[in-house]
Amino acid sequence: MPPRLFDGLVLPASADFHVHLRDGPMLEAVAPTVASGGVDAIFVMPNLVPPITTVEHALSYKKSIAKYTDAKLLMSLYLHPSITPDTIREAKQAGIYGVKSYPAGVTTNSASGVVDYEQFYPIFEAMQEVDLVLNLHGEAPPGKDITVLNAEEAFLPTLLDLHHRFPRLRIVLEHCTTAAAIEAVKKCGSNVVATITAHHLSIIVDDWAGDPINFCKPVAKLPSDRVALLQAATSGDPRFFLGTDSAPHPLRAKKGGAGPHECGKCAAGVFTQPYATQYVLQAFEDAVNKGIIEKERITASVLEGFLGGFGREFYRIEASGKKIRLSAREEKVRSKLAVGSAGADAASDVVIPFRRDSQIYSLEWLED
Amino acid sequence: MPPRLFDGLVLPASADFHVHLRDGPMLEAVAPTVASGGVDAIFVMPNLVPPITTVEHALSYKKSIAKYTDAKLLMSLYLHPSITPDTIREAKQAGIYGVKSYPAGVTTNSASGVVDYEQFYPIFEAMQEVDLVLNLHGEAPPGKDITVLNAEEAFLPTLLDLHHRFPRLRIVLEHCTTAAAIEAVKKCGSNVVATITAHHLSIIVDDWAGDPINFCKPVAKLPSDRVALLQAATSGDPRFFLGTDSAPHPLRAKKGGAGPHECGKCAAGVFTQPYATQYVLQAFEDAVNKGIIEKERITASVLEGFLGGFGREFYRIEASGKKIRLSAREEKVRSKLAVGSAGADAASDVVIPFRRDSQIYSLEWLED
Q1: Does residue B223 belong to the interface with chain A, where contact is any CB pair within 8 Å?
Q2: How many angstroms separate the CA atoms of A280 and B169, rounded?
Q3: Using CA atoms in the order A125, A129, A135, A141, what is the torsion angle rounded to 10 degrees?
Q4: B95-133: per-residue pLDDT in tens?
Q5: pTM of the prediction?
Q6: Running DSSP on this structure, what letter comes out for residue A305?
Q7: Which of A135, A173, B35, B246 is most buried by a 10 A CB count?
Q8: Residues A120, A126, A127, CA angle at the centre, nearest 5°?
Q9: Touching check for B342 and chain A: CB below 8 Å?
Q10: What is the ipTM of this complex?
């Protein structure tokens, strides 16, 4: 049995700056698990169907979520041609925290290798003025020689270009997965930060090759990329903090179809919400035990910063003061989460958590 | 509609120098499809459960296969510690064609980066003496910094080392997938050849990311690797010829479990047997239509060589003289193949062919 590094550790509640909660029965199933992951503040992604492109929609979604969790909710809009500078000002006044950009539908300027966001410059200008955060899904759109392996690296010139054009715009490079992305963020000013997921601290390409449960976008990459992510997450650099990108999908969608003769593309996304903090600690512990990073890097202030402090500072929110305690007593990741009131019978939907059935830290909330 | 390049083309029957036919009901379902792929000679892989490690087993397996296909059957043994130099001599006399090596269970000499086959040197010596072919699954075993992406390239020093130690041993680097592998084979003498699959001429990493049906080992790699494979296959270099590595799995195994709440690792393998010739031609046509290779490369002698002539020459077998004709009339890849007499009802097994439901050349056998 390898050493358990975090037994008895007490930490401020974590914050998770990139979550997908969905709506309907999936929201009902997933939102209550925010607390079990030791998290008391979440940045909620706006990619519902249809996506959230109005302040009204964001606020009504916020109300729906609040039925199921006490966590502080940082809401966002989906960058879309229907959004105007007025929408941005309205969003700021309504307490919206960010605007999420997906590169789908934008084109790459082949001369410069830069994704062409020109249509959105007036929006970015307004965001810069009112200080609303731009959340980037940093992958180049499909194109010649662009693959799931290099799409993130191919996007980095765009990150640098946007930072150069809008130097006061605060930007998050979401769920960064490569050593190259870490370096690019470091090259920018303090306005540019990056979230790192729990699962990208744990897995590499081999873990999702032939395993739909571990498949997500951006895909997990090489061992050297995982090392760079682990080093950034344990560096104490406030530009790198947790955003799990927890993305629940029904198992039937993960497997590309429910029926025994049905097959198709697997939904991309790893579900980490119920153990957000625990997965990060497990990833650090595994990395130390394998000799990938040194135990000495993982100080209390490094953990507190990566798991919430740095993100709260960036988004300018207060800590709740609540505390959590980890313990190494025998606990395993649950094998599945039932969706809908019908429970987990054969016909119902289930969501499979990351590292199902494996050993995990136990987490409890301390009394105020 | 992009141009159809091979309408009306008449070719000698193809030969497929790397097939998995399995046994039992799967053999019964798959073996008859050898003919529909325009193939009249196949090299049969020995990885049954248990694997074929005796001449007796190989010959009884050959009899089982012959019930379902008239194709010429080139049988092989599975490289295993139980095999002795006497086994090799017996195999040669019995008309066995090759010995297949899987690197599982062998170790890498960390100093040289070479897989340690030392225990098998007496076997290779005997194979060289009697002129039995060594068929290599060319991927380095798991290890630090070895991933599904670089396992083949990491194996290449082993290929060169084996060729150096046994210069008269005829070696096939099976299902090669990288530009680096093509270059390594070219560096060796004419004793070293490589098979290329139909699907690796078609797909890249993005095609199996999140798509279990396209997932195989070695995995399909980068666009530049696919270009190198297409160029090798259309070069007229007799060291590169078709071996489909057609690997049927029940759909439930491809999806990592049949039940609606069941999940696990997806079986690796792409099923191409029923359209072996057609898939190759489609890959060439697609590559020409996308400007990846020039139409002028694909001469009749290039096609005849890659699709059978070069492999027959290497294995020293005669062509049957049978001919096939391709036509561009409306035809689609079947959506599934039923396994077992029960047919394709919900409870039964099905195998999903590569590029199911997509346009494909129609193939007919010409009268003798």
Answers
A1: yes
A2: 51
A3: 0
A4: 999 999 987 655 555 556 667 899 999 999 999 999 999
A5: 0.96
A6: I
A7: B246
A8: 85
A9: no
A10: 0.94
